[in-house]
Amino acid sequence: MTIARYRHLTPRKVVDLAALIALRASARASGKTVVHCHGCFDIVHPGHIRYFQFAKQQGDILVVSLTGDPHVGKGEGRPYIPQELRAENLAALEFVDHVYINPTVTAVELLAAFKPDIYIKGREYEHNSHPGFLKEKATVEGYGGRVIFSSGDVIYSSSHIIENYAQRVDLEQEKLALFCKRYDVQKHLLLDIMDNIVDMPFVVVGDLVLDRYQYCDAVDIAGDGPMMSLVPLDRRAFLGGAGMVARHLAGLGADVTLITSLGTDDASDAAIDDLESAGVHVLAIRNRKKIATKTRFVVDTQKLFSLDECPATPTDSTNERYTVDQVMKLGAADDAAESVTGGDGGAIAGVGRKPTLVLYDAGLGMITDSLAHHVIGEVKKAQVERVGYARICAGTAGARGRLARLHDTDLLVATERAVRVAVNDHEQGVSALAYRVLADFRGKSLLTPLGKKGLLAFDGREAVEPGAAWEGKLRSEYLSSPPPSVNGIMDRLGAEEALLAIASGMLAGGANLQQAAYVALAATILEGRQLGHVALDGHELRESLERRNELA
What we know:
Helices cover 38% and strands 25% of the residues. By secondary structure, the chain is of the alpha/beta class. The strands form 3 sheets. Strands 6, 7, 8, 9, 10, 11, 14, 15, 16, 17, 18 and 19 form a 12-stranded mixed beta sheet that branches. The radius of gyration is 26 Å and the shape is elongated.
């Protein structure tokens, strides 16, 4: 069989539910036995091959269904392989006749509709009391089908393979190269997109925090109790929160305006001077007594504890109206129609000089439910008339930020903890939670940082046919960071700000979500190489991309 012929046949094996039901009716009419297997099949290993071979021997037609990405509840970075590629892997097997991507948590609904003659499960399920499997078994036996457990071959595990081999540098490098190829992550394209960000307008709204690092020497145990005795050495202060989001964007050459809440103290004045000198225009609401401050006590490079002096100061109705008015005024002023050209001189689709609105909620009161509702509502209303902002990007920080108020956004940046709190679910897999967040809050995409492990990118913007089984299709990708020995990560402070800023900038410059996620992850690695917040420099970020092996 030629390669061309192979590629023509493989996608035809991946079918929808209507085709499966028609297949079942045809098989019943011709007296053929339909056999069904279901699972995640993240990495197809010898155990799966023997399982499918056994299943094929039990009947005439073998149908394999796999769990869709949003419902793979196997922990961080899972599924390791996206659902479309998992389906292709299964379809490439000669003894598999048809493949179906299942849009529900279990196979119960599929079994009830499809009604295979035989449902095959591994021997490990024979005495399994998991409620999901028991419902599947009851469904099959309810319509007269049979459940057969496969032979007792050695059990292989995708989870075991991934846990033990996924961190090998060569495998991670190969996977990253495939990611770059799949999503057109090319060096010259990324650099062209970064060129587009220069002078592009951004409006950042959110909480500003002064992050102080108190460096200490641990000299002894205190004599009056079992506690460490510290001697202060040096103190450094960094602007964080929405201030650092704005600084990062300015570091890329963007034209940035920051609307934030500050105090009437000298530290607030100094923060404005620092931001203005970095090219950020500041519109300050002086509704605090003093700037919100967090002090971290550090011995060597180890943080011991943090002193939080960030009382929540909600934006009142007058300042809310001021903020909404300024956001809309800036959107109208920067609403220009000229297009942005790529390195070849051609226009990049969907990219213009319309501004991008970035909301950053650290839960300190700048962004209230009311303010978010009115700002986003006004921006969306203007977008209907094709004026104002091109997109809305948003993120949260810490345990205080409320993801639920950041609705109708083009991009959300939130940790797994923030996502779980938003949907009040601490049990399901991250992909399933991401699906719920994007559906409930009407978001288009989500980036979830995983600390030193990398990040998860969820893209919910894929179009589906009306009436399709999926309410909305979610593409998920895991991007891993290089091992610590390679990237030298020391401090994760500011990673979320860098992720939000750079991803927002890349999207504004014409990047797809995966291109934006790739560059944003590279930016967080640079940000984490020293203690404290460090404003990203566009030239340094470019140089880091030049050195990436997968972009060579």
